[in-house]
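U., I forgot to send this yesterday:
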Amino acid sequence: MKDMSIDTIAASRAATVTALSPVARFSLRGRGDAVAALSAALGVELLARVGARAQAGARDVLCLGPDEWMIHAPEGDAAAIINACAGVAAPHALVEVSDRELSYAITGPQAAELLTLGCPRDPDSIAVGEGRRTVFDGATVILWRDGRDAFRMDVWRSFAPHVTHLLATGCRELALG
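Result:
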């Protein structure tokens, strides 16, 4: 999914942390027959392997659990996603969480190392094109790996000041090494 940068939080030779433009975000839960029906309705396959991502156009879907997905889409697609899922008769839950989270791009030659400053999961264990729910210094985040040296982090708005402060501090510290 193509995200647009809106504000640079920190930049050094080690890494750059950038706030990204808002997107429509949905938490989707479903199982059994609902998965195929929801995939057809949304126009993107809901993959069953935790960490797997699927894309269709500007929609980006990450499997967070055996029956749970996070959907990112352009803000203008929110109503279409709601309407598509409303037409699915199989039991499921779709919750819009667009205002709950912010996203940051973490890029650069030491992007993965920067993330290890607050993340117990080894970012290098996440394959390019996949993602995981994890924590960053106690805050629950979703970490998407967009490239070899490119990550996207979704963080709850209430934790954003803390997380951005740590990322900015780490960015500066890594540049000193």
